[in-house]
Structure formats: structure tokens, C-alpha cells
Amino acid sequence: MSKYLKRIACIVLAVLLVAGCLSGCGGKKNTLKVFLYMNDHEKEVYGAMIEKFKEAHKDEIDDIEFQITTQSEYNTTLTGMMTAKDLPDVFYVGPAAVKSYVDNGYVADLTPLLQEAGISTDDLPQNTLNFYRYDGTSIGSGELYALPKDASTFAYAYNKDVFDAAGVPYPDPNKPYTYDEFVAVCQQLTKDTDNDGEIDQWGCSFADLYMFQQYVYSNGAGFLDETNHTVTIDTPEFKEALQKYFDLTFKYGVTPTYEQDVALGPYQRWIAGQTGFYAAGTWDVASFMDPATFPYNWDLCYYPTLSTGVSYTWNGTVGFCISATSEKKDIALELINYLSTDPEGQKQLSGMDGSASVQVPNLQSLQDDFKAAVADGTVTYPSNVDVIFNYINGSDVAIGRMQESDYTPNSEWITLFWEGMTNYRAGNYASIDDFVNDMKPKMQESLDKAWATVENAG
Amino acid sequence: MAASTATKKPAKSKERVKLSGMALHEQRWGRLFVASPFIGFCLFSAFPIVFAFVASLSNWTGTNSIFQNFIGLKNYTDLFTDMRFWKTMGTTVIYMIGIPVGMILGLLIAVAMNRKIPGVKILRTMYYVPVISSLVAVAILWAWVFNYDYGLFNTIIKAITGAKGPNWLGDEMWVKVAMIIFMVWKGLGTSIILYLSGLQNIPRDYYEAATIDGATGIQAFRHITIPLVSPVTFYLLITGIIGGFQVFVEVTVMVANGGTNYSAATVVYYLWDKAFKSQQMGYGSAMAFVLAIIIFIVTAINFYGQNKWVKTID
What we know:
Distance between the termini of chain A: 63 Å
Helix content of chain A: 40-55%
Shape of chain A: globular
Distance between the termini of chain B: 35 Å
Strand content of chain B: under 5%
CATH class of the largest domain in chain B: Mainly Alpha
Oligomer: heterodimer
CATH topology of the largest domain in chain B: MetI-like fold
Shape of chain B: globular
Number of strands of chain B: 0
CATH architecture of the largest domain in chain B: Orthogonal Bundle
Structural class of chain A: alpha/beta
Largest sheet of chain B: none
CATH superfamily of the largest domain in chain B: MetI-like
CATH architecture of the largest domain in chain A: 3-Layer(aba) Sandwich
Largest interface: A-B, 34 and 29 residues
Number of domains of chain B: 2
Low-confidence stretches of chain A: 21-27
CATH superfamily of the largest domain in chain A: Periplasmic binding protein-like II
CATH class of the largest domain in chain A: Alpha Beta
């Protein structure tokens, strides 16, 4: 009796085990896997869009496995998936990773798929699309490997309440300050508001690794040469940009000191209403417009100009790509086309339907409607919205460009620079020349190593 | 000798006969049960170790091929000339100053608590709360305690002296002091609980005999308590050193980017930085191997030396 019972129990357990394995291996035979990072609002909007897509394609697909993580966790998880050769059908690729992902065969070439499906990309911003083109040697031309999820920019913002209290006129929405004008305004905004003998409101504050590039580019300098192989931080233009940037702290005293920055970061000081100017990425707009997060009136403006007379900032983008090993490329292409270009989805994401705005619309044909919606108050957005579009599309007064680290195999070389900036602020260098002379060889060595991993690869 | 051999032989053959019956059946089941942890070890420990070693011999970035980017021992030779590796190793060792400090404090507090005083159980619980608290949560809390402008420490210092306290997390030297204070606080509960159990295992007779012989309290503490809690001290030392080499979360949470001039970064933080932020997985794997070897050597030396100072009641 017990012998038979044991056998039956073994068979039942074995069946359960096999069934469990099979279900774990994907019981639904036609599931599209999507792996992305998003904030809560994006997750809500994209989740609804994916549900809508699933409903419209229920004859072609059983389910869409929509896996979301945080931006900080994303690369680690995706690397694990690549190592395990278990990539999802749809995932993100940033401009910096296009070359590596293509060279190692992880992403599918979208060009023939788009042609076959008769999908046009003409209404997408072409300068953004070019970040996903790769010809086997360089980014910017050749086959297309992703459709942009968004085109974002890191604009400048000012706190209207701080300006009002100081009796300073708002920045001109059509004309950036010169450096000298900017210093003068910041000096008027920097003050001891509670008369305790200590400064507690500053003209501006800086998160170096996001807000120094604007000074470099506007002074006609760059971190690297055109080949992105040589560090160029020792040019006179670069050193002048460094000097002017640090003068705001050490000479004019219109930013918090290093010690004050360590105590409370620049972002927190902006949120606390302690600074006149701070940065506002397109992704920040929704939270800055939320009085619970930022209970002040504010608007967009341009970063000050240096010797070129043009205001610069850096742009960003991330794109939807399709795994080269995906067996459902056709439906995956339909999905990313829908997420990237569907007008209704773009209206939701940009806030044109009345919800919070997390990005400006991808479609150029929607840009005027978006601006009109901002003007009539449908979209909760700062009124100087042209600042954003001028940086993204480029104009006479403002230009947005990608950072050099978007074109190098890794960003360790520039991370060294940011660490050096912190050391400079902490008083560990005697002069700009000392700083540059110390940093350049370290950065070059790191950059050389990074390129060697790509160029010597088998 | 011959007789014992003669008696063993039939026993062996008898055992073989048994194995063909119920014992053999049980042995099969036994192997099946053993197979589960063994397979688990192979999959989740042995394979990753071998994989990481192979990766350490390559320029693996996480996205390229390990075997097509094989570079032999170059990562290891680079490591020995990498000043940042040695700097972070030095910082890691400096943080270990907290191990003896924590042990001394733990023993003293345990001695104080090893008596029948009202509320002692509440005190023991309070000291243990940091151990069971989320490391990330308490690290965030302590980052505020150490805050230059608004922190508890600097507020107290200013109230007492009228001068502003140090820039705990922004200064290259003070950040190490801050980290050590935090780590001692976090680990104190474990030391106290283990020392308490060690103290309660010491027979009272020893102290009575010492008292009759005229020993003072300090002499009894030095010659009875300290030697007889030495197994606990040894355990705390070993686990403290192994844990000390692996400090990571505290640095990530309490300071940005490894601190000013990378002054707060530990070797594991640097490993993570290289592997996951700079996509130098091969280099990170080499660092992990060197770290494992260092931990092994230090632990082996400790075990070798324990006979000289670790005493047991037996």
C-alpha cells in the first residue's frame, strides 16, 4: 500500500514540477516582453497605452509582459539579460549604447522592418533620430536601430517669487543674459533674508555634472575633440569657461559654498526656494508644476552666454529598440511605433489631455498644438515653452547638443573630471591650471582604455 | 592486529549485503536529498565563481564576448598599479579601526548589563534595535545627524562651543571618522548580545575563588572575564574583518560618488563603480578575486593565531 502510495506521490510531484517549469517557461506561447525604466506617471500612461495596444492586437498576441524598473537599476538588469541571452523583445537603448549593442548583435536593424511595414519617421525630429543611426563606424548616419521615446533637454529655470521679492525684472524669454548680466542679477538675488548674519538665498546653485557643460559649450570649447578620442580641457576657451564658472562661487559669492552644498544639495535648495536660478529638465516640469513639490511661481529661461553669444545646454534621448533575437519583430515594431508616434499617446505624455506633462511631444506636427495648449492653459506648463523647443530644435539664441560622453564607450573619463570639480570646490587645487594639468592625463588614460575595449575587441 | 583484521572482514561483507536492501534504498533517497543543496551550490556559488574568474581574464563589459576579449592576467597587473584601488583598500582598512572600538564598547556595556538591574531587558533591546533596522534607512538618518548645517552633532557642538563643527561628510578626514562612528553604532548590538551570552557562560565559582584569593574586580575582569570571552572576541574579530572588507551600502547612501576626492570609498564601492558604472566587468571581477584572496589570507592568519590567545572554559 505504502509502496503504491509513494509511487503515486512521486508521479504527481513530477507532473506538478514539469507543469510548473512549463508555465515558468511561458505558458502563453505568444507573449511580447517589454522591459523599460519609467517614473510613476510615465508608467501609468505607458501602461494604459500598452493595454490599449494589447486589446487592439488580441488576435495576434496573447499578452504583453510589461516589466518596469528604475533608471538606476535598468542597466544592471539589462546586462544580466544580455549575459543570459534572454533579452526582452522591446527595451531601451541610449545613444551611447547604440554602437555597442549593434556591434554585439543585440538589437535589430529597424530600417528594412519600417520599409516593409510602410511606416514613415518623417514627423519625428530628425536630429534626434540620427542618434539611433549607425553605419558600422560612427553614429549619425546609416541604418536606424531605435525610435525615440522622447527628445528631452536640460533648460534653465528661475523662481519668480525670489525675483519679485528682490524687485528684479524677470529674464527676457527671447534673449539670454550675457555672463556679466547674469552675475549682476545673481548679486541682487543673493542675500541674508532673515538678518542672522549669514547668506541664506543665492542667485544660483550648481550640480556640476549637469550644469557646467553649458558654460563650456557657450564659450566655444568642448571636453573632447571631434573624434571623441582626445581630451581637450586644456584649451584657453575651456579654462576660461572653468574660471567664469568657479568665479560665481569664489569671486562673486552668488552660489552656496562647497560646505553648504554638502549640507544641502543644490536641487534641495531650489525646492526650498533658496535660489533664483536652477535647471529644469523636460522630465522635471511635472514635479515643478506641482505645488506640493515646488510651491513657488517659476518659468523657463536660457543659460547665460559666454564668448559665442549663444546659450547652450545638453539634450538627451532614449529610444525603443527591438531585440535582434526577437521572434515577434513585426508586432514589436508596431508597438514601438505606437509608443513613439501615436498622436493620442503623445498628447497624454505631453499633458495635452490635461494630465501632468512628462515630455514634449515627439511628433513635430504636434508641437504647435502643444504650444497653443500651453498658452490656453490646457497643459500645465511654464509659459516660456519656446525655451525648450529652441534648445531641442536649435535656434539663433539657443542650441542643445548631446554630451561627449554619449559618444564614448563609457563615461568614466568624465566622472573623473566631476570628482576633480568637487576637489576644486573643496579647495584642493591652487589654480585652474593646476586642476587642468592634473585632470587631463587621468581623463585621457581612462578614455584611451575605454576606446581600447571597443577597438581591440575581437 | 591480526585478530582485529579478522573481525572486520565479515563486518564489511555483511554491510555490502545490507546495502543491496533497505539501506541501498535509503542511500538513494539520501543522495537525492543531498543533491538539492549540492546542485544549488554548483549553480549559485561554484558556477558564478568560475564565471567571474574567467571574466577577470578578459575585457568583458557586460555586453561584449568574454572569450573574444581575452587579455590574460592584464587586469590583475593593472590592479597592482591602480592607485585608486590601493587608496580604497586603505580606506577600507581604516574603517576597521571600528572593529576593536566596537568590541571594547560592546564588552564594557555587556558587563554593565550582566547584572540584575531594573529595565535591563529594555536596555538590551534598545541596543539591538540598530542591528535589525534597515541599513539604508539608518544610513540616511545618520547622514542627517552628520549634516554640516543642520546635523545633530554640529548643532550640539555649536551650542556648547559656539563654533561650527566639522564638515563630517565633506571633509576627507572627518568622513572616515563619521563612517567609523556609524559602523560602531550599527554593530554594537551584536557585540553586546554575544558578549552577554559569553559572560553568562562563565561559572560564578571562578570569581568567588578569585575573591577568596584577594583579587580585585579589575584583576578578575582581566584574568577571568577577558580570557573566557575570548572565543566571542575571536568570532567578532573574524566576522568583523570579513564584513569590514565588504562595506558598501554605507558609502553609497551617506556620501555622493565616494565622497570628496573618493575619500570615503571602500574597495567594494570601487569594484561596483568599475563594474557597473564604467562597464569594466572584467576589471571588477579581477578586483573581486584579489579581495577574496586578501580576506582568505587575513582569516587564515587569524585562525592560525587563535591558539595563542583564545581560551575556552574546557
